[in-house]
Predict the 3D structure of the following.
Amino acid sequence: MIQAVLQHHGLFEGLESPRKEIWAVGGGKGGTGKSLISANLGVALSKMGKQVLLVDADFGCANLHTFLGVEPEMTLSDFVQGKVDRLEKVLTKVKFPNLFLLSGARDILEITNPKHIQKVGLLQQIQQLQFDYIILDLGAGTSSSNLDFFLSADVGILSVIPEPTSIENAYRFIKSAFYRHFKKWAQEPVAKQLITDAMHEKSARGIQTPYDLVNQVAAMDNGAGGKMKEAVLSFSPKVIVNQIRSRDDITLGFSIRSSCAKYFGIKVDYVGYIEYDEHVVQAIKKKTPLIIEHSHSPAARCIERTIANLMRKDDLKIESVFRTVRM
């Protein structure tokens, strides 16, 4: 089914040769469908013959295993506590071919906000695992852990639903991730101070957007300003709009894309939407991925098209791929 979607839209052309890719699925708030998206992306890729690892990086409320219908014998808790010395020993084989799960930590309050050294070590071990695709299912919010995991990925995916709180938090997540990304690029003390100032809502220097920040830094240090511009170009999150009920809901992704370009100077790719579908609830209750339990449902087909867009490496005219929703 996935191959058919790719072929129908001519998306086999322009695909790069297989290599390990890390995808991170985040969001500004809970309830936007991050775990639903992560689980079904993983299953879909595994059905294409890819070796896939799903990582439940929601340290405070790990539940990705429920979407896959498995009960892990070992979790990240065992790794953090030192009960196992290698991350491979914590992996759970999922009942679908080519798919493994690294279940999130449970029953350890300290892991909800891991120390920097723990975070770096965990990221390094995850990156060394031999899979074609590693998908990180992040927790809600803009904690430093969520932002760092999001920024560590080759592809950062943001799930949003057509509700004011979700939209507001999506913008906050993008802005927070962007400025954290900025900080890693800026090494000059002056640039670091400018970025710190920019994080405050009322900046004494009048910095309101990344454009202002780049210009301020470039005026004081052209080299640092050049690094900032590189950071702008290298940060390009993907947006998926979930639970759409109308044609107006579909346009939300385009609005986010336009607003981020206009006010932040950030290139956001709108890669897909998922229709509101009662089959989603039915699949969750049965603890079976949607694209397995209801493969021909509207939401499942939306996920297939979204994967086609995510796998496309060059610019995609997304408007021509999205179909007209029958509402």
The domain at 2-165+238-321 is CATH 3.40.50.300 (Rossmann fold). The radius of gyration is 20 Å. Confidence is low (pLDDT under 50) at residues 4-18, 314-327.
